[in-house]
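Intended use. Records like the one below are meant for learning the mapping from a protein sequence to its folded structure. Do not use them to infer anything beyond what is encoded.
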Amino acid sequence: MKDFTINIVRTTTPSIVKFEANKFLTRHENFEFKNIDEASRSPLAQQLFYLPFVKTVYIAQNFIAIEKYDIVEWDDVEKEVAEQIETYLSKGGEVIKEVKASTGKVPVTVYAESTPNPAVMKFVANKKLVLQAAEFKNIDDAKNAPLVQKLFHFPFVKEVFIDENYVSIQKYDIAGWEEITMELREFIKNYIEEGNEVLNAETVEASKNSSPEQENKPAEFEDLDDTSQQIVAILDEYIKPAVASDGGNILFDSYNEENKTVKVILQGACSGCPSSTMTLKSGIETMLRDMLRGKVDYVEAVNG
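Structure written out for the chain above:
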């Protein structure tokens, strides 16, 4: 059985609930089905239409959204729907039937964006590329990441970080961004347009512990002590969105109650950035001190 999990997500429209999967369901297309006849291409959607309250089914890259009729409340049925979808997917059920003979490319836009780290450029796509962040220090790390493998064939590519809808590339000093940005942007755009895989499932799982600094990291949030859980929550809510916009990521490594020190791992544009020390001290450290008074005094990057 394939290991699928479904997370229930409420939307701003009360009649619509999203059922998010931990893996891609469809790579490049989105689908909307208003009845069982329209859903002839989707065995999963057809099965969902046997539920009498299902009005519309939307299928996107990693989620299924369902609009219901008013005959039921989501509180009464959403868990059963989530379990039904999870069971169907885990048994290898087909989401969308493949259609052959389509030779046209999938329209994709990619733009380049500078980051606070002068050695890193961020390439942003209009489509989701991965469901979980992954960092690659060399081509050996990328054995299950086809796009990253090809990027390492460029002699000026030093490291690669991928998250959500962007690729952050760190370069060697042998080339300036004005010389290579267009080449990289076009390569990434064409690669995605051709429908090629960015990462596979094995890479996503392995990337959790890909760096030596994370080998002893607790596997589950629930395993952490209360203060560590608070730190992780603050990092996720206040810090990660900001560093992601700059093409980077920050991970919790450990918390020492005795010396009140938090250790973190920097990825992407944050790793090796000249301004990362200032960000840690004047930004993250100050925020954790203020929000967790008496519990945190210092923040250090284990790979800084």
